[in-house]
TrEMBL record:
<dbReference type="GO" id="GO:0000145">
    <property type="term" value="C:exocyst"/>
</dbReference>
<keyword id="KW-0963">Cytoplasm</keyword>
<keyword id="KW-0813">Transport</keyword>
<protein>
    <recommendedName>
        <fullName>Exocyst complex component</fullName>
    </recommendedName>
</protein>
<feature type="domain" description="Exocyst complex subunit EXOC6/Sec15 C-terminal">
    <location>
        <begin position="398"/>
        <end position="752"/>
    </location>
</feature>
<dbReference type="GO" id="GO:0006893">
    <property type="term" value="P:Golgi to plasma membrane transport"/>
</dbReference>
<dbReference type="GO" id="GO:0016020">
    <property type="term" value="C:membrane"/>
</dbReference>
<dbReference type="GO" id="GO:0006886">
    <property type="term" value="P:intracellular protein transport"/>
</dbReference>
<dbReference type="InterPro" id="IPR042045">
    <property type="entry name" value="EXOC6/Sec15_C_dom1"/>
</dbReference>
<comment type="similarity">
    <text>Belongs to the SEC15 family.</text>
</comment>
<dbReference type="InterPro" id="IPR048359">
    <property type="entry name" value="EXOC6_Sec15_N"/>
</dbReference>
<dbReference type="Pfam" id="PF04091">
    <property type="entry name" value="Sec15_C"/>
</dbReference>
<feature type="domain" description="Exocyst complex component EXOC6/Sec15 N-terminal">
    <location>
        <begin position="52"/>
        <end position="219"/>
    </location>
</feature>
<dbReference type="InterPro" id="IPR046361">
    <property type="entry name" value="EXOC6/Sec15_C"/>
</dbReference>
<dbReference type="GO" id="GO:0009860">
    <property type="term" value="P:pollen tube growth"/>
</dbReference>
<dbReference type="GO" id="GO:0005829">
    <property type="term" value="C:cytosol"/>
</dbReference>
<dbReference type="GO" id="GO:0009846">
    <property type="term" value="P:pollen germination"/>
</dbReference>
Length: 789
């Protein structure tokens, strides 16, 4: 049945607009609420009610019309409905019967179904229980396994097991109580593992600090052994170079195979560190352990850096430095093998901090040092510490700088010790020539210092040209060179040779030369001792070349290079000057002794009436002394020194005679006295000529001989004995015969000179004519000298 088409309604109301709108909303099924609300709000509900009533009436009309049109169809439908109702009643009866039958038939089945459902429920519960038990058994098994691992200190598999329980089973444990217990125990077990590994690590900290000293000492010993091997190799190289320049040696190139022990590896156990680090990483707290490790090791280092105040640093420095070396060797191993436990910047910072503390301690201790050997011992151990840690990558520049800064202090102490030793040696020396009776004594005191140019072994007993102080001083100088090289070696200097020479110069000039000068000027030595001192200085001056070669050898400078070098020691020139000083002292001593004999000039009869036949007494004494002086000097002094001393004595004798004639003690003297002086001078000149030739001084080509030292007094005597004294005023004759005479001195002497003694019968002498002529000539000379002055 299809619905009739809608017709547009016709609104008859006066308010047609409103009614049409409401009808349209109703036909479309739209909500009338807004319209109703608007009507009430606008105060016009009556119009709305009127429109609605009109619509109702219209709909009633439409319903009635519809009923009229379908009435017959409706009647038919009602009849059919009644027939269906009857059939429905019959069907209901049939269904009721069937239902009763089914209920009776299914009663037993329902009972069995209930039993089946109950069994299904039991099965489900049992299955769930089995599943639960399996999970619990697995959890219990893992817990037992974890407990066993912990009991066996196998913490890594224990953590793996805990991780498996936590991630794989904890959330799926069906028993809440068990789940709660397991969840509570997991962090406790992890905390227990952390405490256990920390306890092991703390034990390791105690152990490694106790053994760090041994570790450092082993490393320092290895560095010392390597240094020793290096020095031996360089010594063999120097020996090979010397042989190569001296001539071929059949044994030089023999291959010498030695069993050299390998450096023992430093063995210390870091397993507790690795284990603790790994466990903390597995626990997720690796950063916490890194911080814990770093802080504890810093505390240990701070304790290690505290030196004992009750023990001298000389005794404690080796264990102190070994402890520091051991600490940083361990740190380097941890940095290299512990997989990120330490960072390189941390180790560098720690080393710089420790290095600053070490340098501060060394500077303070070096400032207190009063013994050079102690200074050197500590320095050697510091350089060994540097060598030991440097091979592990640690920078040691600050250590080297401290040693360089203390270089002058060390050498000052060394110079002071050498000064005391040299002063004692020079003071206690007898200054007598050494008599060597055995070959080993010769090798020890002469050959080892190359004090003789001839390498051949002499016959014994051997009388050395020096006293015992010379080899003793050479030993001190050689020891000084070795100590200086020892200090400067393995430092920051590449070429230590020049520095060693500088300090060697200081030793020879400031110490040795000063001590020698003190002995010279102390005037405590006899003539023979002073001569021996002069001989000693000459030998020591020549030994400077040996000192330089020894220093070059220790510094690794080839001998041929050192010999070619023109930069010798300044000390050689200084010692040469000191030789002149000792020669002057010898001359003064000789002159002083000569003066003792020249005092006898006062006993000479200057107005004697008879010409003497022999020399005066003083001259005999002088000649005896000069004979002793020359013989002693000839054995000890070099020719140059001998020449200076004897020449000085001769000149002094000449000056003394001239001074005596000039002094007021001699009021006048006669020709007989001059004849006596002539005899004295002839004996002295004969002695001078003989000694000048016998001592080989003539071979030196000296322009002035011993005789020439007497020229002034000889020319004076010749002039006084001359028949024409006035010839002195002739420039040619004066230059040729009297060039050494002084006008003023000659005027004084001539004024005292009397040709003969005034006596009653003086005019009856046979020589009266000659004396008168010489007297006239002398008077002329006196007048002219007065005029000249």
């Amino acid at each position: 049945m299809s619905a009739p088409p809608k017709k547009r309604p016709v609104v008859e109301s006066g308010d047609g607009g409103l009614g049409l709108g409401i009808a349209l909303f109703i036909s479309n099924g739209e909500d009338l609420g807004p319209i109703i609300r608007h009507s009430f709000e606008s105060g016009k509900p009556d119009a709305l009610m009127h429109s609605l009533r009109s619509i109702v009436k219209k709909k009633e009309v439409e319903i009635e019309e519809l009923c009229r049109l379908h009435y017959e169809d409706f009647i038919i439908a009602v009849d059919e409905l009644r027939g269906v109702l009857v059939d429905a009643e019959e069907l209901k009866g049939m269904l009721s019967g069937e239902n009763s039958y089914l209920q009776e038939a299914s009663t037993a089945l329902l009972l069995k179904l209930d039993e089946l459902l109950e069994l299904y429920s039991v099965k489900k519960n049992v299955g769930e229980a089995i599943t639960t038990m399996k999970i619990c058994v697995q959890v219990f098994s893992l817990c037992m396994t974890c407990n066993n691992y912990i009991a066996e200190a196998k913490f890594h598999p224990a953590l793996k097991t805990l991780d498996l329980i936590q991630k794989g089973y904890l959330q799926s444990i069906p028993l809440k109580l068990l789940k709660k217990v397991v969840a509570r125990q997991i962090p406790l077990i992890k905390l227990h593992i952390e405490k256990k590994v920390c306890s092991e690590f703390n034990d390791w900290l105690v152990h490694i600090r106790r053994n760090a000293k041994q570790i450092g000492q082993v490393s320092i010993n290895q560095a010392s052994l390597a240094r020793q091997k290096d020095e031996e190799m360089r010594a063999r190289q120097r020996e090979a170079e010397e042989h190569s320049h001296a001539g071929p040696d059949e044994h030089l190139y023999t291959l010498n195979l030695e069993n050299i022990e390998e450096e023992s590896a430093l063995d210390f156990d870091l397993t507790p560190v690795y284990r603790a680090h790994h466990m903390h990483i597995c626990l997720g707290i690796g950063e916490k352990f890194r911080d814990y490790y770093y802080k504890n090791r810093l505390m240990q280092l701070n304790l290690d850096m505290q030196i004992s105040t009750s023990q001298p640093f000389l005794e404690s420095h080796q264990p102190f430095l070994a402890q520091v070396a051991g600490f940083f060797i361990v740190e380097e191993r941890v940095l290299r093998t512990a997989d990120g436990l330490l960072f390189e910047s941390q180790v560098e910072t720690t080393w710089e901090t420790a290095l600053a503390k070490i340098t501060s301690i060394l500077e303070e201790q070096f400032a207190r040092m009063r013994t050079a050997s102690h200074f050197l011992l500590i320095k050697d151990h510091v350089t060994l510490l540097g060598a030991a840690v440097n091979k592990y990558g640690y920078q040691i520049t600050q250590l080297i700088e401290v040693l360089e800064k203390s270089r002058d202090k060390y050498h000052q102490l060394l110079l002071l010790e050498c000064r005391n030793q040299i002063d004692d040696i020079l003071t206690n020396d007898s200054y007598e020539q050494m008599v060597i009776k055995k070959e080993y004594e010769y090798n020890m005191n002469v050959a080892s210092f190359h004090l003789e140019h001839d390498d051949a072994i002499p016959d014994f007993p051997y009388v050395a040209p020096f006293s015992s102080s010379v080899p003793d001083v050479c030993r001190i100088v050689r020891s000084f060179i070795e100590d200086s090289v020892s200090y400067l070696s393995y430092g920051g200097l590449v070429n230590i040779y020049d520095v060693v020479k500088m300090y060697l110069d200081r030793l020879l000039i400031e110490v040795l030369n000063d001590s020698l000068l003190n002995m010279i000027y102390a005037r405590s030595l006899a003539m023979s001792q002073m001569m021996q001192l002069a001989g000693n200085i000459s030998v020591l001056e020549q030994a400077c070349d040996m000192y330089v070669l020894h220093a070059a050898q220790l510094c690794g400078i080839p001998k041929r290079v050192a010999e070619r070098s023109h930069s010798g020691l300044t000390a050689r020139a200084v010692l040469k000057a000191s030789q002149n000083a000792v020669y002057n002292s010898l001359i003064n001593l000789a002159n002083f002794k000569v003066d003792e004999f020249m005092v006898l000039l006062e006993n000479v009869n200057w107005i004697t009436e008879e010409a003497p036949d022999d020399a005066n007494d003083y001259m005999n004494e002088v000649l005896i002394y000069l004979e002793t002086l020359v013989s002693t000097a000839q054995e000890i002094l070099p020719l140059e020194a001998l020449y200076k001393v004897v020449s000085g004595a001769m000149s002094h004798i000449s000056d003394s005679i001239m001074t005596t004639l000039l002094n007021d003690g001699v009021k006048r003297f006669t020709v007989n006295a001059v004849l006596g002086l002539d005899i004295d001078l002839k004996m002295l000149e004969a002695f001078a000529d003989e000694k000048f030739d016998s001592t080989s001084l003539s071979d030196l080509g000296k322009e002035t001989t011993f005789r020439d030292c007497l020229v002034e007094i000889r020319q004076l005597v010749n002039l006084l004995l001359s028949s024409q004294p006035e010839n002195f005023m002739n420039p040619v004759i004066r230059q040729r015969n009297y060039g050494s005479l002084d006008y003023k001195k000659l005027a004084i002497v001539c004024d005292k000179y009397k040709d003969s003694v005034d006596s009653l019968f003086g005019s009856l002498s046979n020589r009266n004519v000659k004396q008168n002529a010489r007297k006239k000539s002398m008077d002329v000379l006196k007048r002219r000298l007065k005029d000249f002055s």
